[in-house]
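During the second half of the funding period, the structural biology subgroup turned its attention to how the target accommodates small molecules. The most pressing case was zinc ion, which had performed well in the primary screen but for which no bound structure existed. We therefore specified the complex as follows and requested a full 3D prediction, including the ligand pose.
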Amino acid sequence: MGSVLVTNIGELVTNSPELGDESVMGRLYDAALVSVDGVVSWVGSAHDAPACDDVIDCEGAAVVPGFVDSHTHLVFAGSRGDEFAARMAGERYDGGGIARTVAATRAASDDELRRASLARLAELQRSGVTTVEIKSGYDLTVSGEARLLRLARDMTVETTFLGAHSVPAEYRHDRDGYVSLVAGEMLREASAYARWADVFCDEGAFSVEEARHILTASRDLQLGLRLHGNQLADSGGVGLAVELGAASVDHCTYVSDHDIEALAGSDTVATLLPTAELCTRSPFPNARRFLDAGVTLALATDCNPGTSYVTNAPLVVQLAVTLMNFTVDEAIWAFTAGGARALRRDDIGGLAIGQRADAVVLAGPHSVDVAYKASSQPLRAVLRENALLAL
Ligand SMILES: [Zn+2]
């Protein structure tokens, strides 16, 4: 791939305090960076930049690390727009709509699923996302969950087995049988294609005991752990995630002070999903409770057909700032470095030397525009693997 000099950067956010101004954001002005074979090899003042094979002139625009979307359900078929309309007309979301997506996904061919998922992935990439996690969970059979993960693995290494997304209709009268299937044969088949395991642990979904059983079996097969927790109620998911050392517990809409304390003393990231609250008209968790206690936060799109059909990273950042009390810097950090921590990755989420040169070139000179300019396209280009995607 050779070397690329990205120069004339008005404001460069590296997320590396030792670079730049010693803030958490590691800011430099009038900066440049060098990418060799897709990895950052040099960062500094534009005046001191070394010669490279190619040059990308940012013309004074700001550059931030590529967004790390650590929570999506990208592989699915069908639409639930009518359910969204009904919910907006006053019906409360209880997770029951997953069955409709399961029916549509089971009926779709590999080609149909691949085409629809790649289109959504392209939308995410155009919004600045350079790493994406993708969950299964819309088939809920042994071969079907493996199929979804196989398709997802062609799009990312960050694939997550979510057989415990919902109990399918055919197991309505044998809930324990389904939990055993998920923790047994389904998990074994899925583990060939998955890096992570996840459970929808909540009121009306899977209990803490069921989730513990499935996640413990997953850990025995060397899968990393994540959890959907406390989206619909203070249901014990956060405590379980901390107990099991999960990389991330996601949603955290209803959390107690005890949960916050447990998270603060752990390596588990709390991933907040503002567009899921937005599209279900749920209360927005107050990020200050987490941040002030020292909890590491991530932000993600939760792209899914039922509760957050969103492929727009800047929108997520803007909502986090306007409705969850993140500062702009904290929100950008959470969707870059925070997302990387939620995936236990240190090669992404920042632009320090040795990290991947995945970066977003903004349209203007200030990083605040990610959150500020939501009504216009705030991004100009995305850099990944030394290739520039112009927007
Ligand atoms: Zn989700």
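Two results from this model are relevant to the next phase. The pocket of zinc ion is lined by residues 71, 73, 228, 302, 304 (CB under 6 Å). The chain has 13 helices and 16 strands.
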